[in-house]
Design brief:
Family: Belongs to the glycosyltransferase GT106 family.
Structural class: mainly alpha
Pfam family, one: O-FucT
Protein name: O-fucosyltransferase family protein
Region (Disordered): 1-38
Strand content: 5-15%
Distance between the termini: 83 Å
Oligomer: single chain
Shape: globular
Keywords: Carbohydrate metabolism, Fucose metabolism, Glycosyltransferase, Membrane, Transferase, Transmembrane, Transmembrane helix
Radius of gyration: 34 Å
Helix content: 40-55%
Largest sheet: 6 strands, parallel
Number of strands: 11
Number of helices: 23
């Protein structure tokens, strides 16, 4: 604590007061008193020094705070979205060199069949069985406290939805529509499918799914009708566009539907929600969640033309896989022309490929990719795992994991970009490579030509029943399929999910040896095995993951709920499964 300096008046006696000076020495007598002018000057000097030191401290602190921001900005400029504005910076794994790596390792790959992986023993992790809980009652009356003896609760109105997107986005919309209808105590009109310029499929609900089965499976839970009754339509002059149309916010909550949508439904007796993709939150009460489960795994059965041909394709794949006990691998390959264009990735086509992709992007998505705020970085897309794997990369990965050249592979895909060129190396590594086009006759496929959703339904069913499913790009198809496989196979997705950021690094290393590559691929397979049995922790209604990708534990109870589930574990008429297929009936065993 600093000592205070007291000044004595003139003529005062020497009382031994100690005063401080600049060199720290002591003085026997006090200093003479300062004049008023000198006191003011000294006070001003002290204030100036204090202000200067305070300013210097604030400036230094500001610099200290700015340093991390400058460092982070530098990283963004080097590897982030703004790097395209300051020139290209090389990032490891950003260049497609897989064909060069394959040429270098080709002899080792094709000759390596000594450590073949048996399909029956690919998956080692098992989900610990739990005693299934009974299904919650999904009827509205039970949750309003009404009994069977009380007056029947009249429906609040008719719900019309328009499902958009491809096969599985439409499937999501249908399941959500059933859940919303149950939530609002509404009568659901068979969902309409919106025609889209990308998928170019004019199929109706009845072309894809069995309408009668859909209606009967949901009886007692949600009432389904094919059309809005005449007494309702006459009020709107039979003009669908005159019916009140609501634009519901994405991932709308139960409270939103009860507070915003329900009053309008009661007022008008019928409402139309369009579009209806992702219009219901994942976190909903258990009795509403169960409606999603019933719709997805019981009510949605593919139509007879689709399920009949799908069964034939599965039987033919089993027959061609006789050397591996009837088990096969399915690969969802997203290397179609439009997917390559949408991903904004570059492969080995140079300027010609870039120009071709630019034309496709402009044709399909207009100016979406030419906006000023859109910086396209193919190199960073590849490093971040956003580029579709090529057939060659899929083949190298699977051979590295231990699948040998006797493995039968079903390729679920649309029209592959530069098909002959890109499929050749995969065919070289896996001679037993099949597609729906190679398994079915031209006459069998003729009714499906030009209908992308019906074609996807064939791929979905054959992939569903494979021993190993390989996803390469993400999207609704693999997410729904992984969930369906978890539902059928005791909680295990039995799916290979590539670690693409890791894979692109290995496929750019010209010094990599086959033994090293194999070791890394086996670790990747082991990680897919571990993640395949993961079940999200669900407490009350706080689910954050998709019920369609992770259907357990909520959907597990419907095996015991369904009257078609026998004590032996056989499945009949569940989801896409065909009732007469022995293989499908025992899929869960």
């Amino acid at each position: 604590m600093k000592s205070k300096i007291h000044h004595q008046p003139n003529g005062g006696s020497n009382n031994g007061v100690v005063t401080g000076n600049d060199n720290g020495c002591r003085s026997e007598s006090p200093s003479p008193p300062l004049s008023p002018n000198r006191r003011v000057l000294r006070r001003q000097r002290r204030q100036t020094l204090l202000r200067a030191s305070s300013f210097s401290l604030r400036r230094n602190l500001r610099y200290l705070l700015l340093l991390p921001m400058i460092y982070a900005s530098g990283l963004l400029m080097c590897v982030g979205p703004f790097s395209g504005l300051v020139g290209g910076v090389y990032v490891p794994g950003s260049v497609y060199r897989s064909p060069e790596i394959y040429r270098k390792l080709k002899d080792d790959i094709l000759s390596d069949n000594s450590t073949a992986l048996e399909l029956s023993y690919v998956w080692k992790y098992k989900r610990r069985p739990k005693m299934p809980k009974p299904c919650p009652n999904s009827t509205v009356s039970s949750h309003l406290g009404l009994t069977s003896e009380s007056s029947h609760l009249a429906p609040s109105g008719y719900l019309i939805v328009e499902a958009n997107g491809g096969l599985n986005q439409q499937r999501s919309a249908i399941c959500n529509a059933v859940a919303v209808a149950g939530l609002l105590n509404a009568v659901l009109v068979i969902p309409q499918f919106e025609f889209h310029a990308i998928w170019k499929d004019s199929s109706t609900f009845g072309d894809i799914y069995d309408e009668d089965h859909f209606i009967s499976s949901l009886e007692g839970y949600v009432k389904i009708v094919r059309d809005v009754p005449d007494e309702i339509m006459t009020r709107f002059n039979y003009n669908m566009s005159s019916i009140p149309t609501i634009r519901v916010q994405a991932w709308a909550t139960v409270n939103y539907y009860n507070g915003e949508v329900y009053p309008l439904l009661k007022e008008h007796g019928v409402i139309r929600i369009s579009p209806f993709a992702n219009r219901l939150a994942m976190s909903v009460p258990p009795y509403i969640q169960l409606l999603r489960c019933i719709a997805n795994y019981n009510a949605l059965k593919f139509s007879s033309p689709i399920s009949t041909l799908a069964e034939k394709l599965v039987d033919r794949m089993v027959e061609k896989s006789s050397e591996t006990g009837g088990k096969y691998v399915s690969v969802h390959l997203r290397f179609e022309e439009d997917m390559v264009a949408f991903s904004c990735c570059l492969y080995e086509g140079g300027r010609a490929e870039k120009s071709e992709m630019d034309v496709i992007r402009q044709k399909s998505w207009k100016g979406k990719f030419k906006r000023r705020d859109r910086v396209i970085r193919p190199d960073l897309n590849r490093v971040n795992g956003k580029c579709p794997l090529t057939p060659l990369e899929v083949g190298m990965m699977l051979r590295g994991m231990g699948f040998d050249n006797n493995t039968s592979i079903y390729l679920a895909s649309g029209r592959i970009y530069q098909r002959e060129k890109h499929l050749a190396p995969l065919q070289e590594m896996f001679p037993r490579l099949y597609t729906k086009e190679s398994l079915a006759t031209r006459e069998e496929l003729a009714p499906f030509e030009g209908y992308s959703s019906r074609m996807a339904a064939l791929d979905y069913t054959v992939s569903l029943l494979s021993e190993v499913f390989v996803t390469t790009q993400g999207g609704n198809f693999p997410h729904f399929l992984m969930g369906h496989r978890r539902f059928l196979f005791g909680g295990h997705a039995k799916t290979v999910i590539p670690d693409k950021p890791k894979l692109v690094l290995l496929l750019q290393d010209m010094d990599v040896r086959w033994e090293v590559f194999k070791k890394e691929m086996k670790l990747m397979l082991g990680e897919s095995d571990r993640k395949g049995v993961m079940v999200p922790r669900v407490r009350k209604i706080n689910r954050k993951t998709s019920i369609y990708t992770y259907p357990l534990p909520e959907c597990e109870c419907i095996f015991h709920l369904s009257s078609n589930f026998s004590a032996t574990g056989n499945i009949q008429n569940l989801g896409t499964l065909h009732p007469t297929s022995n293989l499908m009936n025992t899929a869960r065993l």
